[in-house]
C-alpha cells in the first residue's frame, strides 16, 4: 500500500512499513496468538514505555494509528480488530496510571450500546435526571457487556458510572473477578470471539483495580474516540480489500460477450463501492489529523461529535459498498471461498458495535442541542 | 407526540401503555373515540388489537387464508425449532442430510408440501386452491417457511423449481411417468426431490438473460445417440442437486448454440451423473448448492422436457413463475427480522424503560413494518395474475429482496451489539436474505429483464418521438 501521508524515513513511515510487513504475513488464516506476540515485539501494541505503538500518537492526531489499522484490516480484519483492542487497552491502562499491565480488553460499550441521550449528557456535563441515572447505571454498571476480541482474555478495563459524582470511574477486572461466557457463531470476525463479561461483584472500588487519575471521564471520552476511529479504519480496510477483489474479478469475468466491468450495471456497483471508500477515507484521515487531547471537560463532546458523526454515516456507506462488491461476483460472492461474504459480515458486525448509526445520531443531536 | 416520561397519565412506566401513547382506555384514544362516532359510519372505522399477520390473512380468500395458516403452523412446528442447530452444524458430506433436515423434509413430504403443485388425487393441492395461480400459493408457502428459516425453506421449496419445468412442458406422459410416482412417494413420507440445473461455471447471468445468451458458449452439451442423448459438462450452484432424485438439466445440442437449449430430465442414479461438491455458503446452509458433473449421462428421447430446442422457453417461463416466490422469500425474511426486532424491543429494558417505550425505536419498527407490508403487497399483486409477466416477476424479485435486506439491516441496528449473537436470529435473517438478491438472476439481471419485457412498449415511444 502506498504511503503518501508521511515523509520517507520518518518514524511514522517506518512504523507503517513494519505494519505492511506484518500484514503480508496475515493475509491467510493465522495463528492469532503468534501475530499478537509479533505485534507486541515490534511495538505496535504499546509496552510500558512510550513508543510508536497504536494509539500512542493521539497528541499529534492519531493518523499513523488509523493508517496502520486500515492496512492490517486490508489483510485480515480479525487481526486488525484484535490488535486494535489490545493496543487500546494498553494505552488506556497506562493513561489511567495502573502500575502494571493486566488487561488486554477494554469494555467501552455497555450492556446495550453507549446509553443514548443519557451518555451524551454525561459527556457534555449536562444535567442528569433520574432516567439518565437509571440508563447509565444500566449501561455502565455491573450488567454483562459484550466484547469482540481475541480468544485469550487476561483482564478487562471496565468503565463504571459513579452515580454520586456523576462521572465515569475505571476498574480492572481480572479473570477471577468476572464471569466470562463465550457466544458461539457470532455474525462476523470468525477468528475472534464474542464474550459476555459480567463482574462477579458489584463493588466499584476494588483496591487493586482502581484507577488513580482524576480525569477519568476525559480518558473515557478519549478511549471512545480512539475506538471509534479504529472501528472505521477496520471497516475501511475491509471495504478496500473487497473492492479490489471485485474490481479484479470484473476485469476477468465475461458476460454478454464482454468483460463485466464494461457493463454499466457492474460499473455502477463498483463506482458505489469506490465512492464509499473514497468519502470515508478522506473524512477519516482528516479527523485523524486532529489531536485527541484529554481536554477541558466542556470539550469532550466537541472532540467526539465529529468522530461519532463520521461513524454514523461511514459504516452504512461501507456496508453498502461491500454489498455492492459482493454483488459483482454474483453467486460466487455468496460462497465462503471468495471471502466477500465474510467482508459483508465483518462490516455488519462493526456497524452495530459501540453505538449503532441510530444511537450515534441521537447522541450527536443531543450534543448539538446542549451546545446551542 | 407526547413525551411519556413527563406525562404519566399516558401510561408510562412499565406494564401499562407503550411510551409516548395514550392508553386504549384513554378518552383521547381512537379506540375510545370511535365508540362515540355516528353509528352509520362506525363500520368504516376500526381500532382493534388484531395481530397484523391475522389482518393480512383475513384479506385473503378463505382457501388461501387456510393454506397460509397451515404453512405457518408447519413452519413453527417443524422448521423454526431446528433452524439454529442446522445452521451451525458441520458441512454435510455430499448427499448427506443433517438428521434434523431429513426429518423436516420427510414431514414436508408427508404433509403434502412437496406435492402441492398438482391437485388431488395426483398431488395434494386442495381443489379449492385451483381458483388461484400456483405462484400465489407457492408465495404464501415460501414466505412462511422463510420466516422460520431460510435454509430449511430452500431444502423444501427448491424442489418446486425442479418440478416446474416438467409441468410447463405440458407433457402428460412425463407428468404421469415422473411426477405421479414422485408425489405418491412423498405421500408415504419418502421425499422424492427434483432440482433444476440452469447455472454453469462459465456463466450465471448469461443463461438467465436473452442478450447474454446470444454470446454464451454452452457449458453442457447433448450429443445425439441411438434412442436419446449423452449429456456432458458441469452445472454449479444447483439448489438441492445433491439430494435430488431427478434433475432437469438444460443443455445445448452438440455443435449448436444457446438457441438449441433443451431441457432433459435426468435420473440422478444414471451412470455418469454425480454431485461433485456442495458450497460453503453465507446462509441458507441447510440446503446444498451443488456442483454437478455430467460425464456422458444418457437421457432417453422420451425424457426431453418441452421438446428439442424448447429449453430456453422452459427456462424463461420457469423463471417468470419462480421469481415471484423468491420475492416472497424476501418478505418472509423481512417479516422474521421485524418480528425479532419487535420481540427484542418489547422485552429489553434500558434504564427504567422498555426499548419499545422509546420513540426512535417505535419509528424504526414502524418503518420495518411498512416496508415489509409494502413488499408483501407487491408480491401478492404480482402473484395474483394468471399470466406472470417477466416485468412484474422480475420487479417484484429485485425490489422485494433489496428492501428486505434493508429491513434486516435495520433490525440488526435495533438490536445493537446484541445483533451479532447467533441465538438472536436476526443476523441469520440477514445472511439468508442476502442470497435472494443473487439467485434466480442477480438483481441487476432482473432490472434488465424488466426492460426486456417492456421493450416493445418502449420502442413504440421511441417511434412516436422520431
Distance between the termini of chain A: 43 Å
Largest sheet of chain A: 3 strands, mixed
Compute the number of helices of chain B: 15
Helix-residue proportion of chain A: 40-55%
Low-confidence stretches of chain B: 1-15
Structural class of chain A: mainly alpha
Q: What structural class is derived from the secondary structure elements of chain B?
A: alpha+beta
Report the principal-axis shape of chain B: globular
User: Biggest sheet of chain A: strands side by side, in what order?
Assistant: 1-3-4
Number of β-strand runs of chain A:
8
Q: Report the mean per-residue pLDDT of chain A as an integer.
A: 90
In short:
Chain A has helices at residues 11-25, 32-41, 63-75, 77-95, 116-123, 130-139, 216-250, 264-288, 300-328, 340-351, 357-370, and strands spanning 105-106, 145-149, 155-162, 167-174, 178-183, 193-199, 254-255, 258-259. Chain A is globular, with a radius of gyration of 21 Å. Chain A has 372 residues and is mainly α.
Explain how this protein is built:
- The complex is a heterodimer of chains A (372) and B (466).
- With 372 residues, chain A is mainly alpha-helical.
- Chain A contains eleven helices and eight strands.
- Chain A has helices at residues 11-25, 32-41, 63-75, 77-95, 116-123, 130-139, 216-250, 264-288, 300-328, 340-351, 357-370; strands at residues 105-106, 145-149, 155-162, 167-174, 178-183, 193-199, 254-255, 258-259.
- In chain A, the strands form three sheets. In chain A, strands 1-3-4 form a three-stranded mixed beta sheet. A three-stranded antiparallel beta sheet of chain A has the order 2-6-5. In chain A, strands 7-8 form a two-stranded antiparallel ribbon.
- In chain A, a hairpin with a 2-residue loop joins strand 7 and strand 8.
- Chain A starts with 10 loop residues before the first helix and ends with a helix.
- In chain A, 56% of the residues are buried.
- Mean pLDDT of chain A is 90; it is low at 204-208.
- Chain B has helices at 30-34, 52-59, 62-79, 83-88, 99-110, 134-148, 150-168, 172-187, 210-213, 311-347, 359-383, 390-415, 426-436, 443-453, 455-465, and strands spanning 194-197, 221-225, 228-239, 246-253, 262-267, 273-278, 289-300, 304-305, 349-350, 353-354.
- In chain B, strands 1, 2, 3, 4, 5, 6, 7 and 8 form an eight-stranded mixed beta sheet that branches.
- In chain B, helix 6 packs antiparallel against helix 7 and helix 6 (134-148) crosses helix 10 (311-347).
- In chain B, strand 2 (221-225) and strand 3 (228-239) form a beta hairpin.
- Chain B is α+β, with helices and mostly antiparallel strands and 466 residues long.
- Chain B contains 15 helices and ten strands.
- Classes of the chains: A mainly alpha (372), B alpha+beta (466).
